[in-house]
Amino acid sequence: NKVAFRVTTVLNPPFTKVKDGMELKENDSDLNEKLDGYAIDLLRELASESGFEFNLQLSKDSAYGSNFNNGSWNGMIGEVYRGEADLALADLTITSKRQEVVDFSFPFMETGVTLLIKRPPYYLHGKNSSRPPLLLYTVASVDDLPDQNEIEYGVVRGGSTFYFFKESDHPKFRKIGEYLVKHSQEMPRSNREGVERVKNANGTYAFFMESAALDYIVGKECDVMQLGKRVNSRYYGIAMPKNFEFKTMINTGLANLHERGLLQNLKEKWFPKPSKCEYKAIQPVYMRSALNLIMYDVQMREKHESQI
């Protein structure tokens, strides 16, 4: 008989999503048929390659895994640590803190911290303004964030990115971490919430998120973009209990999938290149030169008037 693993995950497209046309019910026991996404396809391929079965379950608190002062853990990491799940598979970052309580498989995807902003230009809207002025953006890179107070910013509350900044030895990053700790109760609880906040803030809010998730978002939506380069490099892996007897089997399966190109095929399937709009890393409106900003505004107004 094949071994059957209890696999916990969280909903976060494109890694894990509900199949189109299906709905989840409370305590749904049919998640194997209702969930889809990169992580689910990876699990199916791995199960076929390594010869195991699985039963999907959603993390009870929809969290990835943070530790508390009393030594307890929440999220998927907590469920694996307490023996409530055998594996955790999602966009789950491998960190040294998590490795103190669980083991991880070989990495299956590289990622890193990036900053999402609303795509410029931004205009100051007013009731009596037929020609709203162009707003100057005060942040040109991540390094500018801790030295200004016009742009608010955040991360998923209690996620690995939160702890990356909180525990960083880099002066700028540590300062960002102090801001995040101070405003921790205001932080979004999910990427989706953070993205919506960016879209609705007219350039006054930025959101740190993993580059893999950001690539998916900017490939679908034209009104947001990445600011600057990736802050760091890190990896996603499958979490499992310490000294898990099937760790070698899982790692061998992942290695085989990688060698046959299946991991790359899955990434191309679930992270398609942008098709709705052309994406550029940065636009002229972000240049520090005020003259560039003024000329951009003049050009836009002349174009508008020529069409009247």
UniProtKB/TrEMBL annotation:
Location in or out of the cell: Membrane
GO molecular function: ligand-gated monoatomic ion channel activity
Pfam families: Lig_chan-Glu_bd (PF10613)
GO-annotated cellular components: membrane
Signal peptide: none
Domain spans labelled Solute-binding protein family 3/N-terminal: 4-274
Positions of the Ionotropic glutamate receptor C-terminal domain: 4-273
UniProt membrane topology term: Multi-pass membrane protein
Location of the Ionotropic glutamate receptor L-glutamate and glycine-binding domain: 14-82
Listed Gene3D superfamilies: Periplasmic binding protein-like II
Similarity field: Belongs to the glutamate-gated ion channel (TC 1.A.10.1) family.
The protein, known as: Glutamate receptor ionotropic: kainate 2-like protein
Source species: Dinothrombium tinctorium
Phylogenetic lineage: Eukaryota, Metazoa, Ecdysozoa, Arthropoda, Chelicerata
